[in-house]
Each structure stands twice: as C-alpha cells, then as structure tokens.
C-alpha cells in the first residue's frame, strides 16, 4: 500500500518536473553539442582565430575593399574577411576628418578614371550598398563641381590637363576671366588667367555616411570586424637566388597579431592575405614586416613611402558669402574653400608651403589661418573679408612622399601583403574604385575593370614617379 | 601475424628512444618496413577461410586488405605530418607519432580480431587517439566542437551495439567469428528483434557514415591535422564497413526487410552530399563530403548482401581509402603554402606547381571513378547489384555518379586551372617528400588495377 502513489500527487510531481525542466531549458541548450558554452571565459571582442583576408585599417578604403571582396565571392561565405580597426571612435582617421570632395580634374588619366568610376558608384550608391529593411544611404552628394583657378605660369599646365580630362571622359569646361566673373560674380578675377570648372560628377559628400554605408553593407554580408591593433606579423622566409646570384628573401605572412585595446591580450589571426589599408599609419604597418629595413640599394631596403601629414580645415561663417552655387574653389596660391551646409558656413584650408606641421597630435594651428589662409581667401573672394572662424580641425593625409599618388598592389618580396594606401588626400574619393580593383586583384588574379598596374609598388623600387601636376 | 604485430609494438621504443634529429627518419623507415612486411599477407596460402588462425587473431580475405591498408598508411601519415609538427618541442613530436602508431596497433587488432567483442573494444579504442589528435593538433577553435561531435555520434551508436552483442553472447553462447558463421539464427519477427538488428548495425552506420548520421564527419575531417584526416578517411571509415560485413553473418533473414530504409537513406545520401560538395567553399570540407558520398554507396552495397555487393564494397573501400587520403594530402600541400583552405584563394596552382597538378589530376580522376581504376570497379559492382535488387535505384546511383564526376572536376579546375592570384608569386616548390607521399598513395592504386583479386574478398 505504501508503494502506491496517489494519482493527484503523481500529476503534481509531473507538473513540477516539467516546470523544473523548462527553467533548465537554457542549461540544457548549453549542454548540447551545438552550443558554444565553454568553461573558459572567452573574450568576445577577440577576432576569429583564422581569417582568409585580414584588412589592416577600418577607414573607407578598408571597408570598401571588404565590401567588394564579399561582393565578388560567387558563393556564400566564400572568403572570410576580417577588418581590424584600432580606434572605434575614428578620432584620428583620415576618412572622417576629410573635406569630402570628389573631382575628376587630375593630370594623370588613371586618377581621372578612378574618380569617374567612384562618382558613378556614389551616384548609384543605393544599388550597391542598400541593406534590406534598413534606411537607404543618403550621401548628401552636392554636385557643385570644382573650380580650379590658374595664374599666368600654370595656365599652360591647366590647358594640358583639360585636354587629358576631356579625352578620358570627364566633363570639364575652361572659363576665361570674363566668363568666370559672369558666372560667379563674387570672385575677384585679379591674377586669374584661366579657370577649369567641373560640370558633372564633381562636388563633395559626407565621408562618415560613405564609411558607414560600406561598413553596414559589408557586415551584413558577413565581414568580421575587430577593434584592435595589429602589432606584428608572424611570417616564414624563403630564400631564393636570382639569375645573377643575388639572394632574395621572400616572406609570407602566416599570422597577424591583433592586440586588444588597453590590454596585453593579443590574438594571432591565421591569414592567407593581409591588405595594408592603414592610411596615414601604413608606413608603420609595413615596417612590421621589415619592408624598408633591409640594406640600401636592395628591394628589401625600399620603405613604403607613406607618412602622415597634418592638414587643417577651418569652418568659417560669412553672412554675405557666395551663394548656393559655390563650387569647391581651389586657388593657384594653394588656398581652397567650399560651402558647408545652407547657413552661410564654409570650409577653408590650405596646404602648407614651407614647413610641415607637427604630426604627433591633431592640434590646430589658428595662426596659420590668420597669417596664410585668410589673406589669400579674402583676396580671392572680397566678401570673405568679414568672416568669423567657427571651428577648426586637423586630419592626416596618408602622404606618399615619393609621388603623392596611391600605391595599389602587392609587395614584390612580401608575397601576401597588398597595399591600398598613400593616396595623399584623394583616397576618399577613389575608395569605391580602388576597393573593387584590390578585390579583383585578390580574387581574380588581376585587374579586370580598371587597370591600376601603374600604381604598383614597382615604381617606388625603380624610382619612376608618377607625378600629379595638380595636388591640393 | 606476430611478425607484423611485434615490430608495430616496437615502434614505440623506436619513437621514444631515438635521438631527436633521427626521429622522423627512423620512424618513417621502421613503419615502412612494417608496411612492406604486411604485404606478405597478400599471399593467400590457406585452405580454410582464415589465415594465421589462432583463437583470437586471424585474417581472412575480407580483413587482410584493410589491415594492409592500415599498415601502409602509417608511414604515409608520418611523412605527411613532418612539416607541420617539426616546429614543436621534441616530446610533443614523439607523442604525436605515438598516437599515430597506437592507432595502427588498434586497427590491426580490430581487423584481425576473431571475437566480435574484441573487435568492439578495438573499434572504440581507435576513438581515443583520433580524438586526441583532432582536439590537440587541429588548428581552430571549432576543433573542440568537432571532437565532441565525433565522440558522441560514435558512442551513441556503439552503446546499443554493446548491448546487442551481449544479448547475442547470451543467446548463442559465443561471439567468435569462427563459430558464429555456422550458427543458424532464427530471429522471430518481434519488435525486440528488430531493435536488436538496428542496434547491431547502428554503430557501424554512424561510422561509415550513413547520410542521416554523417554530421560528425565534415567537422572531424576539416578540423583534424593532415594525419588525422588521412587516417579518418582511409581506414577509420572502413571499420564501419568491415563491422557491418561481419555482423551481417548473424543478422539472418531479418535483413531482407529491415535493410530497406537504410539502403534508401544511403542512396539518397549519395546525391545529397554530392550536391553539397558542389557548393563547398572549403577544400577539406569538399573532400570530406565526397567521402560520405562514396561510403553511402559502400553502405548500400553491404546492405544488399549479394556476392557482387560485398565484393564491390570491399574494392571501393580500399580504393576510396587510397584516393581520399591522397586528396587530403594534396589539400594539405596547398594549405601549408597559403595557410588558407578556401578554394577561392588557392586557385591556378598548375602554373606554379605543375608536377603537383599532375598528382591532383590523378587523385581527382580516382575520386570520380575513372576506369580502369578500382574505384570504378567497386562502384560498378555495387550499382549493378543494387540495380538487381530494384531497378529504380539506377536513377539514384546514376545521378550520383554524374554529381561525383562534376564535383571532382570542379575541385580540379578550381584549384589548378584559372587565373593565378598575385599572392602566389613565390611559393615553396614541391618538396620531394610531398611527391613521395603522393606516389606512395597512387602507385598502389594503379597496381591494384592489374591484380584486383588481391582485395576482392571471399565472395568472388
């Protein structure tokens, strides 16, 4: 009799058992083989242990490359891409501190073609970068064009550039001083002999939006993001002899060490390819691989000639300034300005002529504005004589000290490091096209749509500069 | 038997006592000698069904091809692992090779076991070194999950097997294969007997693997280091097939009805896993799924229980062991150079490593069952015997053959042909060691074309 449990109590017992099981559903799920519970605390912000392509640098160039790599893989999860960015606030990143202009008025046909392709991408940006169920991308692309002003000595160069630009397909017009005065009455045409005005695909846009659009789309396609700093690489060296008997050391990166912010913890990420898109700090990343630390007069002794150069941008307010049609004006004296927003604000700046500002910080030199920029600005646009400086910031150019043009392609000795850096101030506007080019180089073995082999590292070794006659 | 077993046991002192710089040379040489000695098992000079018989260990035409394969594979595994293990501390290297050798010991004992319970114990014992190899020497975090899947899938099947074997022991009084073949089993048609039938075969179906319980295989193959992948693909899967063939003896007339769903699952699995292969982005994962596909054919051949089915199954097991192991070695050569298993990044290798491209070609042709290689012979015999069982299966097996050919060619064309990426500018040229490895895989396969009687089994 004692062994018989009354049915009510048995029912109650079953209920309690089921409720108990439901409370333990999570524990049960964690015990199943497919869950990722481990007794060891895993730092979730660590990058994955293995990635196929590690992109060093999460600026617009890095994310553009990541997007295009995922775009080009023909099968889902074809390649595993990891973007490593050391500063989640992007406080020193050149992308977001840029003035955001895009122009086709270069002297090198390669640059013009890159700009046209990028402008085309940005005009149809929602065809490329829209994510399902998210807001469409609004780049705030102001198509106001660039206006270059030439004095007596440089008018010849401007005419030659104009011919190249028209030949390649950019829509540019040359204006005489009278035409200039007619179109833009607020300009003082004193000293101007010729002006070149971009009619289409030129202007400025919001760099933050472009960066975030690339990032959002890339992450939706499965790119891994890690906030950490690449502090070194583990590589294997393979020595070979050339036909003349010289010894060459070929290196192959096997692991990229990613160090977590504010911590000693680091994760060696096993990778097949490393893309150096670190912008102003690419030179340091290249040095981690010993590029440039070899003997002089050898390929190993040629460093990556990219260093940070500080440039200032000043926001000024002028109530009687030029109107809405103001282009991005670049004077022959080096000063430039553009309209910012609709409230009479403008962004102005100038490339320093003699001494370069100190690059250890991003402090703004207001004296520079007072002494150099404002006089020239006021000379060109008389209305700017009474303006008020609202704010200012400084950003780094990833300045290519060799010829101020980008370096795209892989290094001859470090087999699997690709460069996409050194654009010296026009990287943002070329980022969509360069990203596609690098993705083609990696996945297709060669350039397909645009041939950027002129930008390879070879020219640095053979010391043949591709000089741009139109650097701002 | 002892002339192979004792030298195999003596591999352990060799590994641990040889000075460091001679470790790899000595172990490779010693295991090659053992492998060559094991070839003596090919000489069939027995009037009875068994050779080297004693109460506990004997070989018969079913088991000695697989035992020779197990012995042959150990020097190959040692040669293949030399590169990636050489950078570790000496003791760890010795441990690694000891694990490989212990696998060989367990495998020889498993294939020559005369008592089904001995076979069961050895079958389980092979799990331990493999688990250690996968979880300790694999290269990614996922290896822990792979080890768990591997262990628990197999154990899920083998506990019922233990119960079934003990029941059989209780029922018939013996588990010795010598005597079991003469016992007439009269299995009543009850649910209990059906469950017993499933329990007998479940462990081996999981090991083969059968399509529904195959999830452990891609994980284990991909996360394991090259030697682990080789031994898994070449021999451990065959343990399942061998076990099924031994158990068929006692399973009696029940199999006629009970095997139906499993045959269908196996045939369907060929097509499903073949299609999965076409969509794979990871090289090793593709080869792993192709293993499942081939083993599906083997499983259906065994379950059909006809002489041609059994013969085809054994031939395909041996041939697939060599071909699949060769493919894993090739994938490893590519991985060691580029550190990536993604097929999109390891393309156009023919331009850089043309001789290796020849081996790739041969291994892929073996995989897609090109005549006159034994892969085709095995497949044909199984397809024919399954067709004899039911004409409709020709649709499944024919489609399966087509898909096998397409993914093998896709594998070859993606890795070898096509544009060579820029980051392959300078790559290690093919080492002689790698060529030796591939030759030792594929030359036996080619030789078997000339004398397939060696591995036909006893049914032909």
TrEMBL record, chain A:
Primary subcellular site in the record, as a coarse category: mitochondrion
Ranges of residues in domain FAD dependent oxidoreductase: 52-441
Membrane topology: Single-pass membrane protein
Cofactor(s), by name: FAD
One Gene Ontology term, aspect cellular component: mitochondrial inner membrane
GO biological process: mitochondrial respiratory chain complex I assembly
GO-annotated molecular function: oxidoreductase activity
Transmembrane intervals: none
Compartments, record wording: Mitochondrion inner membrane
Keywords: Electron transport, FAD, Flavoprotein, Membrane, Mitochondrion, Mitochondrion inner membrane, Oxidoreductase, Respiratory chain, Transmembrane, Transmembrane helix, Transport
Source taxon at top rank: Eukaryota
Function summary: Required for the assembly of the mitochondrial membrane respiratory chain NADH dehydrogenase (Complex I). Involved in mid-late stages of complex I assembly.
Record protein name field: FAD-dependent oxidoreductase domain-containing protein 1
Organism, scientific name: Esox lucius
UniProtKB/TrEMBL annotation, chain B:
Enzyme Commission number(s) from the entry: 7.1.1.2
GO CC terms: mitochondrial membrane
A biological process term (GO) from this entry: ATP synthesis coupled electron transport
Start and end residues of each NADH:ubiquinone oxidoreductase chain 4 N-terminal domain: 1-110
Segments crossing the lipid bilayer: 21-42, 62-83, 95-113, 119-138, 150-169, 194-217, 229-252, 258-279, 286-304, 310-331, 352-370, 390-413, 434-450
Membrane association type: Multi-pass membrane protein
UniProt keywords, alphabetically: Electron transport, Membrane, Mitochondrion, NAD, Respiratory chain, Translocase, Transmembrane, Transmembrane helix, Transport, Ubiquinone
One function term, GO molecular function aspect: NADH dehydrogenase (ubiquinone) activity
Record's catalysed reaction(s): a ubiquinone + NADH + 5 H(+)(in) = a ubiquinol + NAD(+) + 4 H(+)(out)
Residue ranges annotated for the NADH:quinone oxidoreductase/Mrp antiporter transmembrane domain, each copy included: 113-404
This protein's record includes keyword Mitochondrion: yes
Family assignment from sequence similarity: Belongs to the complex I subunit 4 family.
General function of this protein: Core subunit of the mitochondrial membrane respiratory chain NADH dehydrogenase (Complex I) which catalyzes electron transfer from NADH through the respiratory chain, using ubiquinone as an electron acceptor. Essential for the catalytic activity and assembly of complex I.
Protein name, entry field: NADH-ubiquinone oxidoreductase chain 4
Species whose genome carries this gene: Esox lucius
Lineage, highest ranks first: Eukaryota, Metazoa, Chordata, Craniata, Vertebrata
């Amino acid at each position: 009799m004692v062994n018989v449990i009354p049915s009510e109590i048995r029912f109650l017992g079953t209920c309690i058992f089921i409720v108990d099981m439901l409370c333990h559903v999570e524990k049960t799920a964690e015990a199943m083989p497919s869950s990722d519970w481990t007794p060891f605390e895993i730092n979730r912000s660590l990058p994955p242990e293995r990635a196929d392509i590690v992109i060093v640098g999460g600026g617009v160039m890095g994310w553009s490359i990541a997007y295009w790599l995922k775009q080009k893989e023909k099968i889902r999860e074809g390649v595993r891409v990891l973007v490593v960015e050391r500063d989640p606030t992007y406080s020193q990143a050149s992308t977001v501190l840029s003035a955001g202009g895009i122009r086709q008025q270069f002297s090198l046909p390669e640059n013009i073609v890159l700009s046209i392709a990028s402008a085309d991408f940005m005009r149809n940006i929602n065809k490329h970068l829209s994510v399902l169920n998210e807001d469409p991308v609004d780049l705030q692309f102001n198509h106001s064009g660039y206006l270059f002003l030439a004095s007596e000595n440089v008018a010849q160069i401007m005419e030659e550039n104009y011919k190249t630009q028209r030949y390649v397909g950019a829509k540019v017009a040359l204006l005489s001083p009278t035409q200039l005065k007619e179109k833009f009455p607020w300009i003082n045409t004193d000293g101007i002999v010729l002006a070149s005005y971009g009619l289409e695909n030129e202007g400025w846009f919001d760099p933050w939006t472009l960066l975030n659009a690339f990032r959002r789309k890339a992450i939706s396609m499965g790119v891994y993001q890690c906030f950490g700093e690449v502090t070194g690489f583990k590589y294997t060296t393979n020595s070979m002899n050339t036909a003349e008997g010289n010894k060459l050391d070929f290196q192959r990166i096997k692991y990229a060490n990613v160090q977590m912010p504010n911590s000693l913890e680091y994760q060696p990420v096993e990778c097949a390819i490393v893309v150096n898109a670190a912008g102003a700090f690419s030179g340091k990343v290249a040095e981690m691989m010993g590029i440039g630390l070899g003997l002089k007069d050898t390929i190993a002794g040629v460093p990556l000639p990219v260093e940070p150069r500080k440039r200032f941008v000043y926001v000024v307010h002028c109530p009687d300034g030029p109107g809405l049609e103001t282009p991005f004006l670049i004077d022959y004296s080096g000063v430039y300005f553009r309209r910012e927003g609709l409230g009479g604000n403008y962004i102005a700046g100038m490339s320093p002529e003699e001494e370069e500002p100190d690059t250890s910080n991003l402090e703004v030199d207001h004296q520079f504005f007072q002494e150099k920029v404002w006089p020239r600005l006021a000379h060109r646009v008389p209305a700017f004589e009474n303006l008020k400086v609202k704010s200012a910031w400084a950003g780094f150019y990833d300045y290519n000290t060799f010829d101020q043009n980008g370096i795209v392609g892989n290094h001859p000795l470090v087999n699997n490091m690709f460069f996409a850096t050194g654009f010296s101030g026009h990287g943002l506007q070329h980022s969509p096209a360069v990203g596609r080019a690098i993705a083609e180089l990696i996945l297709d073995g060669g350039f397909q749509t645009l041939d950027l082999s002129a930008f390879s590292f070879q020219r640095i070794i053979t010391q043949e500069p591709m000089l741009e006659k139109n650097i701002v | 038997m002892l002339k192979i077993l004792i030298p195999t046991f003596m591999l352990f002192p060799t590994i641990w006592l040889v000075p460091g710089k001679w470790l790899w040379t000595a172990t490779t040489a010693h295991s090659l000698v053992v492998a060559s000695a094991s070839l003596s098992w090919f000489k069939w000079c027995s009037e009875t069904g068994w050779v080297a018989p004693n109460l506990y260990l004997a070989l018969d035409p079913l088991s000695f091809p697989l035992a020779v394969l197990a012995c042959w594979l150990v020097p190959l595994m040692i040669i293949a692992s030399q590169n990636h293990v050489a950078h570790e501390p000496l003791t760890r290297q010795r441990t690694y090779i000891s694990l490989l050798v212990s696998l060989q010991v367990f495998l020889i004992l498993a294939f020559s076991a005369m008592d089904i319970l001995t076979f069961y114990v050895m079958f389980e014992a092979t799990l331990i070194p493999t688990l250690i190899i996968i979880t300790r020497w694999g290269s990614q975090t996922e290896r822990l999950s792979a080890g768990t899947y591997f262990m628990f899938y197999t154990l899920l099947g083998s506990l019922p097997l233990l119960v079934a074997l003990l029941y059989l022991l209780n029922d018939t009084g013996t588990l010795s294969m010598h005597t079991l073949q003469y016992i007439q089993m009269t299995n009543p048609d009850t649910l209990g007997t059906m469950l017993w039938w499933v329990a007998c075969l479940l462990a081996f179906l999981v090991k083969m693997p059968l399509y529904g319980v195959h999830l452990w295989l891609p994980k284990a193959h991909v996360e394991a280091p090259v030697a682990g992948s080789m031994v898994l693909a070449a021999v451990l899967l065959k343990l399942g097939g061998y076990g099924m063939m031994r158990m068929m003896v006692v399973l009696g007339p029940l199999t006629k009805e009970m095997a139906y769903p499993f045959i269908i699952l196996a045939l369907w699995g060929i097509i499903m896993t073949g299609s999965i292969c076409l969509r794979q982005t990871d090289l090793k994962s593709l080869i792993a799924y192709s293993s499942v596909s081939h083993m599906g054919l083997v499983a259906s051949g065994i379950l059909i229980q006809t002489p041609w089915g059994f013969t085809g199954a054994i031939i395909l097991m041996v041939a697939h062991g060599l071909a699949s192991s060769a493919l894993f070695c090739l994938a490893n050569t590519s991985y060691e150079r580029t550190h990536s298993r993604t097929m999109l990044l390891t393309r156009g290798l023919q331009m850089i490593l043309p001789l290796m491209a020849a081996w790739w070609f041969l291994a892929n042709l073996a995989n897609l069952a090109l005549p006159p290689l034994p892969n085709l012979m095995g497949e044909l015999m199984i397809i024919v015997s399954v067709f004899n069982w039911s004409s409709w299966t020709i649709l499944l097996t024919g489609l399966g053959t087509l898909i096998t050919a397409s993914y093998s060619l896709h594998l070859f064309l993606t890795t070898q042909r096509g544009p060579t990426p820029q980051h392959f500018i300078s790559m290690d040229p093919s080492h002689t060691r790698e060529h030796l490895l591939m030759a030792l895989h594929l030359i036996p396969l080619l030789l078997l074309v000339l004398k397939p009687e060696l591995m036909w089994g006893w049914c032909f």
